[in-house]
Design a protein that fits this description.
The protein is α+β, with helices and mostly antiparallel strands and 336 residues long. The protein has ten helices and twelve strands. It folds into four domains: 88 residues, Arc Repressor Mutant, subunit A, CATH 1.10.10; 51 residues, no CATH class; 88 residues, SH3 type barrels (Roll), CATH 2.30.30; 77 residues. The N and C termini lie far apart (68 Å). It holds the Pfam family WYL.
């Protein structure tokens, strides 16, 4: 069965005690040592005696640990524990077949990030692990992720990521698609997000005092790190994006219930790939009605329009009218 972090720390603490040839440990000694190690790793509670015996039994079953229990020669009421083989340690044991399979699968996934900014270390660590553990690399790829290696914003991921982790203020030269000339801002970066194969940086724009400023990485022309004082924030970015599809929202915007209709042939795709985490479905012979609670934005409209004739907006009316107008405009462009 899988071993969680807490359990692994306990096993290693017990292993260090049991392989110590200079002393023997009672159950009380072992409990005290495990509690000390757990506290040093940030865990608040130790373990009880029944858990201690369960841990030692697991070590015997999983690693074939030669745990020897013997009575204290000075007090027969006390049982002392040690390894019968002083050279044994769970750290010296070869990985199991199941562990080997899991590691190979993880390396296969990691290998897909080779060449991406901020993942340069993968080029060294993956072959090193494969060599150390005696793995043979796949002679062909068996998994593929969506990627856009020609995306111009890739070069900007590393400097912005470093600025976020090191709390640095950046002077960014930016070319907005709606502006004729590029402009510069002093930017305190807080968060990076990928959406629809593009990357976006969110942070504080000093000029506007807006902590939710959004920059598309492919529109950034230049990045210069400054010595200005970095302004921290407590924004929960996961919560911020939880209420939207995409990356665009205004702070003052509120959640709205969006109701959509799909024909029967489209229903299986929508049910197996929800539009949003709040999606609720109601299906009958005429089709599938879906409701989601989101902030209305540009990306939501784009998502709806991508379904073409395979969707109808039922509510709210303002969204329904916006989609209808855009479809009418699109249709007019086909008229001679």
């Amino acid at each position: 069965m899988p071993i969680n972090k807490n359990a692994l720390i306990r096993y290693r603490a017990l292993d260090r005690c049991l392989k110590n040839t200079t002393r023997k440990y009672s159950a009380k000694d072992l409990l005290r040592e495990v509690e000390r190690i757990l506290e040093s790793e940030g865990f608040e509670k130790g373990i009880v005696k029944s858990q201690l015996h369960a841990d030692m039994q697991y070590m015997q079953d999983f690693w074939k640990a030669p745990i020897l229990a013997e009575k204290d020669s000075l007090d027969r009421r006390i049982t002392l524990y040690r390894y019968s083989d002083p050279l044994f340690s769970i750290e010296n044991q070869p990985i199991s077949e199941v562990e080997s399979k899991v590691i190979k699968e993880a390396l296969s996934v990691l290998s897909r990030f080779k060449g991406m900014p901020q993942f340069e270390w993968i080029n060294e660590i993956v072959p090193a692990i494969q060599d150390k553990l005696g793995f043979i690399a796949q002679d062909r790829e068996v998994i593929s992720f969506e990627s856009n290696w020609d995306y111009e914003g890739l070069r900007n991921i590393t400097p912005i990521f470093n600025a976020i982790t090191n709390h640095r203020v950046l002077k960014i030269t930016y070319q907005d698609f709606r502006a004729d000339e590029p402009y510069s801002i002093f930017f305190h970066p807080y968060y990076l997000k990928q959406y629809n194969s593009r990357w976006f940086a969110f942070g504080l724009n000093e000029a506007s005092s807006n902590s939710y400023w959004n920059l598309a990485l492919d529109r950034i022309q230049d990045i210069v790190e400054t010595q200005d004082e970095y302004q921290y924030n407590e924004i929960d970015w996961e919560e911020y994006f939880d209420d939207i599809i995409g990356v665009t929202r205004r702070i003052e915007d509120e959640l709205e219930e969006v109701r959509l209709w799909f024909p029967p042939e489209q229903a299986p795709y929508i049910k197996t790939k929800p539009l949003h985490r709040t999606q609720k479905c109601k299906e009958d012979a005429t089709g599938l009605e879906v409701s989601i609670k989101v902030v209305l934005n540009f990306e939501l409209e784009r998502t709806i329009l991508s379904f073409g004739s395979s969707m109808k907006v039922l509510a709210p009316d303002k969204l329904k009218n916006q989609i209808k107008s855009k479809l009418q405009l699109s249709l007019s462009r086909y008229e001679d």
